[in-house]
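Entry 14. Two folds queued back to back today. First construct below, sequence then C-alpha cells.
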Amino acid sequence: MSPSTDNPHAVYALFKLAWSHYDCAPNDLEGDKATEAAARVAHQLNIESAILYADENQGIVVPESQVESAVKEIQSRFENYAAFLQAVEQGGLTQELLREGLRRELQVEAVLDRVSVGQFEVSEEDAELFYYLHPERFAVTEKRQVRHILITVNDEFKENSEAEALKRIGEIRNRVTAKPSRFEEQAQKHSECPTAFHGGLVGTVERGKLFPELDAVLFEMQAGEISEPVRSELGFHLLLCGDIEPPRQVPLAEILPKLRQSLEERQRSQFQRQWIAEQLNRLNTPAKVVNA
C-alpha cells in the first residue's frame, strides 16, 4: 500500500507505523493490514493537524539538533546505514522527507509539553494516600531460585522409556542427596535440558512460571531442599530450591519518588488526551456564519 505522494506527512506516518507496528516495509502491507494501517495513519494525521492548528503552537521552533538526533535514533534500529537507506527508499521517502516528518513529530511533542508544563505536581501526601488506598499495586509476590535436572521420557529410545527414565533420575537423586554440592555437576553431566550448561539453573521464578507439577512442588520446599522425582509432560525432574524471597509490601519510602513521577505522568497524559479531544472538536466543527 502506498499513500498519495501529495501528502508527504502520510508517507512518513506510514513508514513509521509499518516498521514500528508491523515490522515490515510499507509496500509489504497487504489486505486487512494495509486497510488498518491506512485508517491508523489518517487518524494520526487528523490528531497532529488539530494539535498544530492550536494557538499553543505559536512561536515553537524545533532545533535542527533535535531533528538530527531523531534521524540517528532511527538509523540505529537498522543493521547498518545501507539497510537504513534501503528502508527509507522502500517507504517512498527521501532523507529530506524523513527529516520533515520527524520535525513535525517533534513539533507535536513540543506543543503537548507546552500545554501541560507546570500543570501537575503530585505532593508527597497525595502519593502516600494513593499508596495506602491501593496496597495491591505495591505487593511483591514470593520468588524462589530453582535448579533442575531433567531426564526426558521418549519410548523411541530404551534408555528414555518411562521405567528407565525414572530409574536414572532416582540414581542421580541418590548421588545429589548424599552430597548436595554435586547438583550442578550432575546437571551438567546428565540433564537433558539446555539449562544443563548452567548447572541446571532455571532462575528466580514466581508462582505460575513453571509446569504446574513443578510449581506445586517447588513452592512447598525449603531452601536447599532437593525434591523427589517430579513428572511433567517432558519427563522426570529433580528440583533444587535455592534462595527464597518471601512476599512483601514495597515500603513507601522505597517507592515514593517513582510513585510521584508516575502519578504526575498519568495526570499529564489524561490532561493531554482531553486537550487533544477539544482541539479535534474545534477543528472538525464548521464555523458559524453570522448574518450582518
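Second construct, same run, same settings:
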Amino acid sequence: MRIYDVIKNKRDGKVLSDEEIKFFVEGYTKGEIKDYQASALLMAIYFQGMNSKETATLTEYIAKSGDEVDLSSIKGIKVDKHSTGGVGDKTTLIVAPIVASCGVPVAKMSGRGLGHTGGTVDKMESIPNMRTTFTQEEFFKIVNDIGISVIGQSGNLAPADKKLYALRDVTATIDNISLISASIMSKKIAAGSDAIVLDIKTGSGAFMKNIDDAIKLAQEMVSIGHHIGRKVIGMITDMDIPLGFAIGNAIEVIESIHTLKGNGPKDLTEVSKVLATNMLYLAEKGSMEECAKMVDEAISSGRAFDKLVQMVKAQGGDINVIIDTDKFEKAKITHEVKATQSGYISHMDTEACGIASVMLGAGRETVDSDIDFSAGIILKAKVGDYVEKGQVIADLLTSSKDKLKESEDKFINSLSWSQHKPSPKPLIYAKVSIDGVKKY
C-alpha cells in the first residue's frame, strides 16, 4: 500500500477502507509517512469529508496509537464527561463529586487550559499540594478506595492526535467536523470509560460559535461512540456568557465548592445538575427523573461536597482550603472595573472575557507561561443586568500591574449595552443521542 494512493483516493472523493486509514495513522505516528504527505491527505479530507464509518475508524486507530487505559479492574459502569471548553467552565469539579457520591466510579483524565479557556488540571493545582500526576496503579487504587480521581492526561495518550493536531494547526485544516470529532473522541476512547457525556459549548466563548455546528459536532461524536461500542450523549450548552461569576483558577474552585454546598450561581448549578443527571442515567442508575432526584439529594445532604474533600485528601491536597475557602491565597491586587455608561448589559464577548483573564495571569499566553492561580475576574454583573454608570461590574485579580490596564480595556470592550432588557437565552439548547436530536 502507498500513501500516494490513499491521498489520491480521498482527493477523488472515494471512501477510505479501514486498512487505508490504519496504514495512514500507524505510518504517520511512526514517522514513515512525511508531514507533506499527511498534510495532503488532511486537506483532501477537509474538502471531501469522511462518512461516519471512516470517522469512527480514524478515531479508533488514533486511540490505539498509544497507551489505552483498561478500567476493567474498577467495578461498575465508568462514565466520563468532556467539555469542549469555555470561560468559567468549572463543571468537572462539581459534576465528578456528585456522580461519585451516587455510587458511580469516576476515573477521569482532564486537560490544561487552551487559548482563552481554562483547564480542569490548572484549577485543581491551585489547591496547595494537590497532585494531578499518578501512576496507573495509584490512579486505580484511589478510584477503588473512594470512587473518584481526576488526573492530568497521560503523556502517551493518543500520540497520533498530538502529531495530527499540530499539523492541522499550521495547514488550515482545523475546522472539519470529522477531524475535530476524531481528535476529541480518540482521547476519550483511549481513557477507557464505558460511557461519555459530552458538554458541547456554543456561543461567543466557545469553539463552536453557533448551535447548528455544535449539534453537527455532537452527532458526529455520538456516531463514533455507537460504532466503537460506547454509549455517548451530547448536551449543547450556552457559552455566550461566562458560566458562573468566577473566571480564573482558585476562584473557580471556590465557586465550585459553593455550588456543591447548594449556594452556587444559578446558571452553573443548572448546567452541572443536567450533566450529572445524564451521567447517572448512562450509568443505569434509573430514569432521568430518578437520576435528577439523586443529584439534588447528593448536594442537599452534603455527600457531594464530602466526596470532593475525600478526593482532594487522596490526591495530597490541602483540605483546609476546601473546608474554609478564605484560606486560599489571595491576589495581591484587586482592581474594580466600573460601568462606563448606564443601561442593560445586552451581550458579552465571552472569548474576550477569557482573554482578559489570561492577561491577568490566570491562563497561558505561551506554552511555557506560568499561571498565577490567584488571578482572574469576578463578575459583579452579567447579561440582562441593569447597571448605573460608575457601578462596579467586575473585580480584576492579579499579582502584577503589567497588563492590568490592557485587561480592563479588553473586558470593557467585550460588553454591549442597551436601554432595553435583553431576552434571556436558554442554558441548555439540545440533547443529542443515537436516537436523534431533542431541542429545548
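Quick look at the second one. The chain has a mean pLDDT of 94. Residues 358 and 365 are 7 Å apart (CA to CA).
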